[in-house]
Amino acid sequence: MATQGSPYLLQLIGHNIVLRADDEGRVSSKALADAIAASEADFESDVCRTTLAALSNRDVDFLVCMAQDERESRISVIAERMGVSADYAQKYRRRLIDAGVIEPVRRGYVRFAVPYLDAHLRTYDER
Predict the structure, then answer these.
(1) CATH 1.10.10.10 segments of the chain
(2) What is each CA distance from 48 to 63, 70, 75, 82, 101, in whole angstroms?
(3) pTM value?
């Protein structure tokens, strides 16, 4: 579950586990938890910040509004939070899907395609 399907995050976790293993290659529960936490922090720094840096301020506004939801977001609610029309929000929805940052879930709903980006947006304001 910690990798959220990301091969890069899996690689980071493996690397951090190796760094924390004892001389016999054993890893304690605490070392494993520390490895996962360090990997998540590295991923946020390497992937989440880089992803956001490549987007416009309005794209990021869309994502910040989206991050208020747990698993998926309704486009009409995002538009309301942004203070724009649903048609205007659709423009940013399309741009972010094309960029691979979000993905459609079903008609009118989207979710984050980048692991931990939603949590990153809830705790870190880069603007």
Answers:
(1) 56-123
(2) 12, 18, 22, 21, 10
(3) 0.81
